[in-house]
Protein 1
Amino acid sequence: MEKAPRPIRSELKSHRIVQEEEKPIRWSYMKILREHSDLKEFYPEIDPYAEAYRMRDNMWAIYTESLDGAGDPWMYLINGPERAMLIDTSFGLGNLKGLVNYLTGNKELIVVNTHAHPDHSMGNGQFERIFCNEYEVPFLQKKNDPHIWDSLFNENRQPLYTEFDPADLIDFHPFEIKGVPDGYRFDLGQGYEVELVHLPGHSAGMSGFIDHYNRILFSGDLTGILNKPADTPYWRLHTVEALRDGLRKLVPRLDHIEGVFPGHGMLDQSPVVIEYLLEATEAVIKDPENYDRIRTTMRRGTPRASCVKYIYQGSALRYSPDNVYYSQDPNITANTEEK
Ligand SMILES: [Zn+2]
């Protein structure tokens, strides 16, 4: 029986109703960071749902609580010489745009998504144009929908997973989507470049971003290779093999990187975590049956099972056995729940 997690003191206007289990290392990190660190900047009069943590002179990690019962996501804001860049937009609760404008002094803003999952993209409607990798475009297009928030509520319009004031959700506005290729460089002015690095697997267009000035990799979500039906666009890019290929291209460049900032979890990790993740993908590809355990999670009322391969010094690579090989016939989908 898992113990209820120790609460983390917070002044946020949101309160989680459904809490994941306490992750023994990550939880301690988050508790100390959020309760005691002086990196935290909280401006409740602008956005009572977000905490900004200044991680570099010109870069903040922005924390919000998850609204769908899963892990709390990180967004990142880079204040470049002439332009700023926001990486991901969380759930679209509160005045994120106001917070970003305040932190950057109303600088021109480039908004990018690592991928289209709700915890990274439902706030896109606050902005006119969103950049993402070209393979993520069809998934992001689905977020151009005024009903994206419906699944957060029960039939009485009460939040299911996290308490918040529904009036604080942003108004829906369609946004323009611009797909760009692997290696695309965004110009924040005066030679300050941020490069998109395609790291598929978790989703087809999942991409990290390298801030070449700070020598940082914003790595997005890498460790969950979810079961995808065979008719999913770019099915081959939702596999452990696709992730391995992306990591293999990235590893020789890690000498240039000083810190890794993921979409969830602990900040400013050593770049060696990317090598350890690559090792886990290679072990799974060698023998998909050689997992450490099976994990069943409840997602929106239905149980979902996945294989779990531990990552050295890290968390775990979760994968569906049907999504290991991109050479596998995508028309064959076994039922992972039976394993
Ligand atoms: Zn994700």
Protein 2
Amino acid sequence: MKEVNSYVLKVASRCNLNCSYCYMYNLGDTTYLKQPKFMSLHTITALSVRLKAYCDATGVDYIHIIFHGGEPLLLSQDYFIDCIEILKSTSSDIKFSFSVQTNGVTINKEWYDLFKANNVKVGISLDGPKKHHDEFRLFHNGKGSYDEVAQAIRIGNGNGLAGILMVINTNIPTREFYQEIKELNVGKLNLLFPDGHYDRLPNGFDGLKFGDDNYTPYADWLIELFLIWKSDRLRPIIRLFETLIEMVAGIDGIGNQGFGRTKNGVVVIETDGGIEVTDSLRACYEGITRNGINVHTSNIEDLFKDDIFEVYYHAHDMVCEQCLNCPVYDFCGGGFLGNRFANHNGFNNPTIYCRDMIRLISFIQNDFLQSLPLDAINSLKGVQKLSYADVIEDISKPFLVKIDDDVKQKLISFKQPVLI
Ligand code: SF4
């Protein structure tokens, strides 16, 4: 039985922003239009009954709930109090933790107080300095949302703001970017690679250069940022860097959707109660995540029979042949599943960030090794200096490890369906 601890509740299917890169609204899937605008308390109750049954059957005793959207703060403060009460009282033997991911434009001290009182960690999305944030994160009238979000971060510091989430934008000079997070006094930050795949490359890639062995714009940007970050004694936590350092240091169990070899244990609950795989896969094509499984009619475990969930859960094991033969596979894990998609062969590809992964991982591994005394390096079994060029050469040779044919066919089976 799969162990799934994290549940992303899409409590609102609409948003007060209209970010240009958003997978919910602007990257190929319009099925949100058929969803109720908000998740009802009736659906929350049905979910909590399903969670209790799932935990009773599996022995899972810890569940993390992430209130998400659309924009969750379109709902009332009472709604969140009721949700937490329903979940905790229906499933009193489960230990719950809660967080909320908001675009930050309406959060104020009163909201922070409410979340603090209910042990809900607050995450805010920001895309860098005003000029760059306002290019993408817009209100529906076209106005940028930076001023509101920066104000929300300032209020949140010391009042329950747990961290900032940013989508990497390589157009922002790294010094300017770092100065911004210092000025806003950000204590914890995570960086996300933009959604995208082989048939819809993110803006940070020049389509003419994409695929060249020495073209690694995301890694170049991240390495520059890493060096600035590392030289700052009062640096904030940057989760992406710390994850990579922990992995190369050999700490067990480190990884997430985008890196490493751990299982992907996140389930999404839609506003109508639909139980689905992570919704950022919707950037692949219309309806790819839809499956007819719903908390009102189905058990949580029914999702585990869904093919796309199976591939997502095992995404770092179910990889293409190139990844199986790659020297940095254990750290990269083939990258996030959605970034491996191509219309003609589904997920049977390395991530579009493959070259960037090799450059970034080899840099961080070498940097880490350089910081250690020789006897410590010798005790790190199997971790050695890596050359970017050597890794590229290795994955260009005939592959020694062969992909299991069933895995290959399963990955390919998600190719873009031909519409008749
Ligand atoms: S770096 Fe490229 S080839 Fe290596 S595991 Fe990652 S995606 Fe696969």
